[in-house]
Design brief:
214 residues; mainly alpha; 18% helix; DNA-binding
DNA sequence: CCGGTAATAT
DNA sequence: CATATTACCG
């Protein structure tokens, strides 16, 4: 005589009125037109900063429960700052991020508006995870590089960016700055926007770069 | 309150 | 599986 309490029943749970995103909904001009022999222009925000934009059915949690902040996409720019900020202070250290780098300090040094300690903390964790896995022999493919393990930024026109702009994050109105050539995103069969790479949003590389040349 | 790690969600 | 956020703990 136990009424269905609350067990993780994998029953069906779907079919519901779609709700609009709670967070700011940026109009995304997605060319979903069936390019039938036309100029298919797939819009793919490959830029740096971009907030998670996914229309997921979010209809389950009742009550006021912050549905988890949108995933903050760590764009190369942000990562660059994240990895470069501490360099300004504790440079020369091959692992300043592994030594003494508190999210707060990093955030302060980053000077990125809209970045919270938690985000930095999270990113730091990820960074450490990768940093810990990397500084070691590789299973098979090994890149014959003589680079010191430090940090690396995407092959972009970075290098001491003389632009300490504060509008780096992608929260508020940000001047969409799309630079570089835009790679036409070709859908496999020209259907929906299914990207091949299963990266969430920002696809940047975790490469290594020698923060300091010997 | 801040920092780190685990758990959880996408 | 990778990545990001939340939660919990020190």
């Amino acid at each position: 005589m136990l009424p269905d309490f609350s067990l993780p029943s994998p029953a069906v749970k779907n079919a519901s009125c779609p709700i609009s995103a709670a967070t700011e909904d940026h109009s995304l001009s997605l060319s979903g037109s069936q390019g039938v022999g036309g100029a298919a222009a797939s819009a793919l925000a490959m830029a740096g900063t971009c907030l998670s934009l996914q229309v997921q059915q979010q209809q389950q949690q009742q009550q006021q429960q912050p549905p988890r902040k949108a995933r903050r996409c760590w764009s190369p720019e942000l990562h660059r700052r994240f990895v470069l900020a501490p360099t300004t202070r504790w440079r020369s250290s091959s692992n300043f991020l592994d030594v003494v780098a508190t999210p707060k300090q990093i955030r302060e040094l980053m000077q990125v508006d809209g970045l919270t300690n938690d985000e930095v903390k999270s990113h730091l964790q990820k960074y450490r995870l990768h940093a810990r896995k990397m500084p070691n022999s590789s299973p098979a493919v090994d890149q014959p590089d003589v680079v010191l393990r430090g940090l690396w930024v995407p092959p972009e026109n970075y290098t001491t960016s003389p632009q300490p702009s504060v509008s780096l994050s992608c929260s508020p109105q940000s001047p969409l700055q799309l630079a570089g050539s835009n790679l036409a995103v070709s859908a496999t069969a020209g259907d929906s926007c299914e990207e091949d790479g299963r990266s969430e949003c920002c696809n940047w590389t975790w490469g290594e770069v020698s923060a300091e040349h010997i």
